[in-house]
Amino acid sequence: MADDDATSHTPTNPHMGEMTLRQAMINRSLMSVEMIRMRAALEEQKKEFEKNLEEDNPTNALKPDDKGKRPIVTDEVPKPKLDRVSFKSFRSSGATEYTGQSDPVLVMQWVQNTEKVFRTIRVHDEDKVRYASAMLTDRALVWWDNTYESLDSNTRENMLWDEFRSKFFEQYCPMDLQRRLEKEFWDLKQGTMTVMEYETEFNRKLRFGQRFLSTEDDKVERFVGGLRKEIRNFLVNREVPSFVKAVEFARRCEHDLSIPDDPVPAAKRPCTGKTSTVPTYRSPKFLMSKRGQTHNATRTTPQAYSLQSNAPRICQRCGKNHVG
């Protein structure tokens, strides 16, 4: 028992207690540093996630006040980024050259065709002037080279299609020619053309008079006004909601007018007063009655002659009528 008491009351080493406390403080510090590092890593991952989300779907980007909130998920599919169209693709898609003809209709056709290719393959705005000007040849190329040299560097790099088209029209379709074509559009009549031919000519010259046609109804009214009278009267009495319907109704009317009327039956034909050359059928009874009349006439004639022969004659000697 004495030994046990002595062992239990043996004083502990003070240095060991200090070492244990110091180790605990070190461990706690290490844990704090590790927690700080983990938080920093999580924050960095969060920022990277928000950045990627904003790039993938700009319309659903997080606002500064929404940091830390869950992004709103929508059904909208992000639009794919369009690749830049090459000049080779532009040329092979139907782009045509322009040599500088002084025909305003050809000028308009070249511009319209070029714009059609722009829309079809989705040429970027910054490439339109470069691609279109590369299709100019001969006199048109000489004009563009001189025009390009007269521009400042900023205008050369930032010129858009509308500005190029304006300069192009000033050179090859000036205002006096545009006014002349505008008058031709307003004077356009169907005449001997079919409805389809008239529609084609109408659309070809429409651009020169379009500044006066602000609505669809104005366009329909101008188209109907140039139709032939019989077709125009048919459309005037109908409700025409659009230009497409106006063309459709005009084609139908033209087709109906081309179908000949049904022939009138012989019993209902009006008398024209003309004698017919077809021989009339005579019945045998009619012919016999005619023959009888002729025979009687031949028999009565000699009787009349004989009565006249028995009348007294004028005497050649005395001049009186007596027999003998």
UniProtKB/TrEMBL annotation:
Residues 63-74 have a biased composition (Basic and acidic residues). It comes from the Eukaryota. Residues 50-74 are annotated as: Disordered. InterPro entries: Retrotrans_gag_dom. Residues 131-228 form the Retrotransposon gag domain. It holds the Pfam family Retrotrans_gag. This is Retrotransposon gag domain-containing protein. It comes from Centaurea solstitialis (yellow star-thistle).
